[in-house]
Amino acid sequence: MQAGDVEIDLLRAFIAVAETGSFTAAADVIARSQSAVSQKIIRLEEVLGLKVFERTSRVLTLTPDGERLLVGARKMMVHFDDFLRDIREPAAVNLLRLGISENLVPTQLPKLLSRFTKLYPDLQLELTTGLSNDLLADYEAGQLDVVIAKRKKSATAQRGRVIWREPLVWICAKDYEIEPSRPVRLVMMRPPCAYRAIMIEAMASVRREWSSACLASNLIGVQAAVAGGLGITALGTSFLQEGMRIIEPSEKLPTLPTTEVAVIGDEARTQHLVQPLVSLLTEGLMSSSSLT
Length: 292
Known about the structure:
Elements: H1 8-20, H2 23-30, H3 34-48, E1 53-55, E2 60-62, H4 64-88, E3 95-101, H5 105-119, E4 124-130, H6 132-140, E5 146-152, E6 161-173, E7 184-189, H7 194-205, E8 210-216, H8 219-227, E9 233-236, E10 244-246, E11 258-264, H9 271-291
Helix pairs in contact: 1-2, 1-3, 1-4, 2-3, 4-9, 5-9
Protein backbone atom coordinates (compact mmCIF):
# COMPACT_ATOMS: atom_id res chain seq x y z
CA MET A 1 0.00 0.00 0.00
CA GLN A 2 0.96 3.63 -0.46
CA ALA A 3 0.29 6.68 1.74
CA GLY A 4 -2.62 7.62 -0.51
CA ASP A 5 -4.47 4.47 0.65
CA VAL A 6 -4.94 5.75 4.22
CA GLU A 7 -8.57 5.29 5.21
CA ILE A 8 -10.58 7.76 7.24
CA ASP A 9 -11.42 5.22 9.95
CA LEU A 10 -7.70 4.58 10.51
CA LEU A 11 -7.18 8.28 11.18
CA ARG A 12 -10.22 8.42 13.48
CA ALA A 13 -8.82 5.52 15.49
CA PHE A 14 -5.38 7.15 15.63
CA ILE A 15 -6.79 10.48 16.85
CA ALA A 16 -8.90 8.69 19.49
CA VAL A 17 -5.87 6.78 20.83
CA ALA A 18 -3.70 9.92 20.83
CA GLU A 19 -6.34 11.94 22.70
CA THR A 20 -7.31 9.31 25.27
CA GLY A 21 -3.83 7.86 25.80
CA SER A 22 -4.96 4.22 25.63
CA PHE A 23 -6.44 1.66 23.27
CA THR A 24 -9.16 0.76 25.78
CA ALA A 25 -10.45 4.31 26.14
CA ALA A 26 -10.19 4.91 22.39
CA ALA A 27 -12.33 1.82 21.78
CA ASP A 28 -15.16 3.44 23.77
CA VAL A 29 -14.81 6.70 21.83
CA ILE A 30 -15.11 5.14 18.36
CA ALA A 31 -17.37 2.26 19.43
CA ARG A 32 -15.00 -0.52 18.43
CA SER A 33 -13.30 -3.32 20.35
CA GLN A 34 -9.84 -2.77 21.82
CA SER A 35 -8.35 -5.36 19.47
CA ALA A 36 -9.96 -3.64 16.47
CA VAL A 37 -8.43 -0.31 17.50
CA SER A 38 -5.03 -1.96 17.93
CA GLN A 39 -5.29 -3.51 14.47
CA LYS A 40 -6.19 -0.14 12.93
CA ILE A 41 -3.09 1.47 14.44
CA ILE A 42 -0.90 -1.38 13.20
CA ARG A 43 -2.42 -1.03 9.73
CA LEU A 44 -1.93 2.75 9.77
CA GLU A 45 1.75 2.34 10.64
CA GLU A 46 2.14 -0.22 7.84
CA VAL A 47 0.47 2.04 5.28
CA LEU A 48 2.54 5.08 6.25
CA GLY A 49 5.76 3.21 6.92
CA LEU A 50 6.05 5.16 10.18
CA LYS A 51 5.97 4.34 13.87
CA VAL A 52 3.40 6.66 15.45
CA PHE A 53 3.37 5.40 19.05
CA GLU A 54 5.99 4.35 21.58
CA ARG A 55 4.52 1.51 23.62
CA THR A 56 5.57 0.19 27.02
CA SER A 57 3.68 -1.90 29.54
CA ARG A 58 2.53 1.27 31.32
CA VAL A 59 2.76 4.22 28.94
CA LEU A 60 1.63 5.01 25.41
CA THR A 61 3.17 8.15 23.89
CA LEU A 62 3.34 9.72 20.45
CA THR A 63 6.58 9.55 18.48
CA PRO A 64 7.77 12.73 16.71
CA ASP A 65 6.22 11.31 13.51
CA GLY A 66 3.04 10.63 15.47
CA GLU A 67 2.88 14.23 16.67
CA ARG A 68 3.21 15.50 13.09
CA LEU A 69 0.56 13.03 11.95
CA LEU A 70 -1.83 14.16 14.72
CA VAL A 71 -1.73 17.77 13.52
CA GLY A 72 -2.32 16.72 9.89
CA ALA A 73 -4.97 14.14 10.77
CA ARG A 74 -6.99 16.68 12.71
CA LYS A 75 -6.84 19.09 9.79
CA MET A 76 -7.98 16.35 7.42
CA MET A 77 -10.87 15.38 9.69
CA VAL A 78 -11.98 19.02 9.82
CA HIS A 79 -12.20 19.12 6.02
CA PHE A 80 -13.86 15.71 5.83
CA ASP A 81 -16.46 16.58 8.47
CA ASP A 82 -17.10 19.92 6.72
CA PHE A 83 -17.65 17.99 3.49
CA LEU A 84 -20.19 15.64 5.11
CA ARG A 85 -21.95 18.51 6.88
CA ASP A 86 -22.30 20.51 3.69
CA ILE A 87 -23.86 17.53 1.99
CA ARG A 88 -26.27 16.69 4.79
CA GLU A 89 -27.33 20.15 5.92
CA PRO A 90 -25.88 23.66 6.14
CA ALA A 91 -24.57 24.81 9.50
CA ALA A 92 -27.04 27.02 11.35
CA VAL A 93 -24.69 28.25 14.10
CA ASN A 94 -23.60 31.86 13.64
CA LEU A 95 -22.72 32.56 17.30
CA LEU A 96 -20.14 30.72 19.38
CA ARG A 97 -19.86 31.43 23.11
CA LEU A 98 -16.31 30.31 23.83
CA GLY A 99 -14.60 30.06 27.22
CA ILE A 100 -10.80 29.72 27.32
CA SER A 101 -8.65 29.16 30.38
CA GLU A 102 -6.61 32.27 31.13
CA ASN A 103 -3.50 30.07 31.24
CA LEU A 104 -3.76 29.83 27.46
CA VAL A 105 -4.40 33.53 26.87
CA PRO A 106 -0.87 35.04 26.80
CA THR A 107 0.70 32.32 24.66
CA GLN A 108 -1.95 31.03 22.27
CA LEU A 109 -5.10 33.14 22.19
CA PRO A 110 -4.09 36.08 19.92
CA LYS A 111 -2.81 33.89 17.09
CA LEU A 112 -5.67 31.42 17.58
CA LEU A 113 -8.36 34.09 17.23
CA SER A 114 -6.65 35.68 14.23
CA ARG A 115 -6.49 32.43 12.29
CA PHE A 116 -9.95 31.27 13.36
CA THR A 117 -11.71 34.49 12.30
CA LYS A 118 -10.12 34.17 8.86
CA LEU A 119 -11.73 30.74 8.54
CA TYR A 120 -15.13 32.01 9.75
CA PRO A 121 -15.32 35.76 9.06
CA ASP A 122 -19.11 35.87 9.46
CA LEU A 123 -19.18 34.12 12.84
CA GLN A 124 -20.00 36.18 15.92
CA LEU A 125 -17.70 35.15 18.77
CA GLU A 126 -18.46 35.78 22.44
CA LEU A 127 -15.20 35.19 24.30
CA THR A 128 -14.84 34.60 28.03
CA THR A 129 -11.46 34.03 29.70
CA GLY A 130 -10.91 33.06 33.31
CA LEU A 131 -10.16 30.23 35.72
CA SER A 132 -11.10 26.76 34.50
CA ASN A 133 -13.51 26.14 37.42
CA ASP A 134 -15.37 29.39 36.71
CA LEU A 135 -15.64 28.59 33.01
CA LEU A 136 -17.03 25.12 33.74
CA ALA A 137 -19.61 26.67 36.07
CA ASP A 138 -20.67 29.05 33.28
CA TYR A 139 -20.91 26.10 30.88
CA GLU A 140 -23.11 24.17 33.32
CA ALA A 141 -25.33 27.26 33.64
CA GLY A 142 -25.81 27.33 29.87
CA GLN A 143 -23.82 30.56 29.42
CA LEU A 144 -21.06 29.02 27.27
CA ASP A 145 -21.20 26.64 24.31
CA VAL A 146 -17.62 25.38 24.49
CA VAL A 147 -14.85 25.52 27.11
CA ILE A 148 -11.15 24.92 26.47
CA ALA A 149 -9.49 24.52 29.85
CA LYS A 150 -6.28 23.40 31.51
CA ARG A 151 -6.38 20.91 34.35
CA LYS A 152 -4.19 18.48 36.28
CA LYS A 153 -3.93 15.04 34.71
CA SER A 154 -5.90 12.54 36.77
CA ALA A 155 -6.12 8.76 36.88
CA THR A 156 -9.90 9.00 37.27
CA ALA A 157 -12.30 9.79 34.45
CA GLN A 158 -12.83 13.49 33.79
CA ARG A 159 -15.19 15.41 31.57
CA GLY A 160 -14.20 16.53 28.11
CA ARG A 161 -11.84 15.45 25.38
CA VAL A 162 -8.10 15.80 26.01
CA ILE A 163 -6.33 17.57 23.14
CA TRP A 164 -2.90 18.26 24.67
CA ARG A 165 -0.72 17.11 27.55
CA GLU A 166 2.22 19.06 28.93
CA PRO A 167 4.49 18.36 31.94
CA LEU A 168 4.72 21.07 34.57
CA VAL A 169 8.18 22.38 35.44
CA TRP A 170 9.61 24.70 38.10
CA ILE A 171 10.50 28.07 36.55
CA CYS A 172 12.54 30.97 37.89
CA ALA A 173 14.55 33.98 36.68
CA LYS A 174 17.78 33.08 34.88
CA ASP A 175 19.97 34.44 37.68
CA TYR A 176 17.77 33.20 40.54
CA GLU A 177 19.42 30.90 43.09
CA ILE A 178 17.54 28.58 45.44
CA GLU A 179 18.89 28.49 48.98
CA PRO A 180 18.52 24.90 50.27
CA SER A 181 18.53 25.98 53.92
CA ARG A 182 15.65 28.46 53.55
CA PRO A 183 11.94 27.99 52.69
CA VAL A 184 11.23 27.98 48.95
CA ARG A 185 9.76 31.31 47.83
CA LEU A 186 6.68 30.61 45.71
CA VAL A 187 4.96 32.95 43.25
CA MET A 188 1.29 31.99 42.99
CA MET A 189 -2.11 33.16 41.92
CA ARG A 190 -4.80 33.75 44.51
CA PRO A 191 -7.14 30.81 45.23
CA PRO A 192 -8.91 29.08 43.67
CA CYS A 193 -6.05 28.17 41.33
CA ALA A 194 -5.07 24.67 40.18
CA TYR A 195 -1.38 25.56 39.87
CA ARG A 196 -1.34 26.96 43.40
CA ALA A 197 -2.82 23.73 44.76
CA ILE A 198 -0.33 21.65 42.77
CA MET A 199 2.67 23.60 44.13
CA ILE A 200 1.49 23.36 47.75
CA GLU A 201 0.76 19.63 47.36
CA ALA A 202 4.19 19.04 45.78
CA MET A 203 5.99 20.82 48.63
CA ALA A 204 3.99 18.85 51.20
CA SER A 205 4.87 15.56 49.51
CA VAL A 206 8.58 16.09 50.29
CA ARG A 207 7.99 18.08 53.51
CA ARG A 208 9.73 21.09 52.04
CA GLU A 209 9.06 24.42 53.74
CA TRP A 210 7.84 27.28 51.58
CA SER A 211 6.70 30.86 51.83
CA SER A 212 4.51 33.04 49.62
CA ALA A 213 6.78 35.51 47.83
CA CYS A 214 4.02 37.04 45.68
CA LEU A 215 0.29 36.59 45.16
CA ALA A 216 -0.80 37.64 41.67
CA SER A 217 -4.29 38.05 40.27
CA ASN A 218 -3.43 36.54 36.87
CA LEU A 219 -0.80 34.63 34.93
CA ILE A 220 0.83 37.77 33.53
CA GLY A 221 1.46 38.93 37.08
CA VAL A 222 2.99 35.56 38.00
CA GLN A 223 5.33 35.67 35.00
CA ALA A 224 6.38 39.25 35.78
CA ALA A 225 7.14 38.38 39.42
CA VAL A 226 9.16 35.32 38.45
CA ALA A 227 11.10 37.19 35.76
CA GLY A 228 11.80 39.89 38.37
CA GLY A 229 13.42 37.36 40.69
CA LEU A 230 10.81 37.35 43.46
CA GLY A 231 10.61 33.56 43.57
CA ILE A 232 9.75 30.42 41.62
CA THR A 233 6.53 29.01 40.18
CA ALA A 234 5.17 25.90 38.43
CA LEU A 235 4.04 26.25 34.81
CA GLY A 236 4.08 24.35 31.56
CA THR A 237 7.16 24.65 29.37
CA SER A 238 5.18 26.67 26.82
CA PHE A 239 5.01 29.56 29.34
CA LEU A 240 8.78 30.01 29.54
CA GLN A 241 9.70 33.59 28.63
CA GLU A 242 12.83 35.63 27.98
CA GLY A 243 14.85 35.97 31.19
CA MET A 244 13.51 32.74 32.71
CA ARG A 245 14.92 29.24 33.05
CA ILE A 246 13.67 25.77 33.94
CA ILE A 247 14.98 24.64 37.31
CA GLU A 248 17.04 21.46 36.96
CA PRO A 249 16.29 18.27 38.96
CA SER A 250 19.71 18.64 40.60
CA GLU A 251 18.30 21.63 42.51
CA LYS A 252 16.17 19.15 44.47
CA LEU A 253 12.63 20.39 44.11
CA PRO A 254 9.66 17.97 44.17
CA THR A 255 8.49 16.38 40.92
CA LEU A 256 5.45 17.99 39.32
CA PRO A 257 2.53 16.30 37.52
CA THR A 258 1.40 16.64 33.92
CA THR A 259 -1.36 19.04 32.92
CA GLU A 260 -3.97 18.57 30.22
CA VAL A 261 -5.86 20.85 27.90
CA ALA A 262 -9.41 19.57 27.43
CA VAL A 263 -12.42 20.59 25.36
CA ILE A 264 -15.83 20.45 27.03
CA GLY A 265 -18.95 20.95 24.92
CA ASP A 266 -17.81 19.38 21.65
CA GLU A 267 -21.37 18.68 20.47
CA ALA A 268 -22.85 18.03 17.05
CA ARG A 269 -24.29 21.54 16.79
CA THR A 270 -20.89 23.24 17.21
CA GLN A 271 -18.52 20.47 16.15
CA HIS A 272 -17.75 22.02 12.77
CA LEU A 273 -16.48 25.12 14.63
CA VAL A 274 -14.75 23.33 17.51
CA GLN A 275 -12.65 21.03 15.33
CA PRO A 276 -10.80 23.89 13.56
CA LEU A 277 -10.26 25.56 16.96
CA VAL A 278 -8.74 22.37 18.34
CA SER A 279 -6.56 21.88 15.28
CA LEU A 280 -5.22 25.45 15.40
CA LEU A 281 -4.67 25.36 19.17
CA THR A 282 -2.78 22.07 19.23
CA GLU A 283 -0.64 23.20 16.31
CA GLY A 284 0.28 26.34 18.30
CA LEU A 285 0.96 24.39 21.50
CA MET A 286 3.17 21.94 19.64
CA SER A 287 5.11 24.82 18.10
CA SER A 288 5.60 26.48 21.51
CA SER A 289 6.70 23.20 23.07
CA SER A 290 9.30 22.54 20.36
CA LEU A 291 10.69 26.05 20.76
CA THR A 292 11.36 25.49 24.46
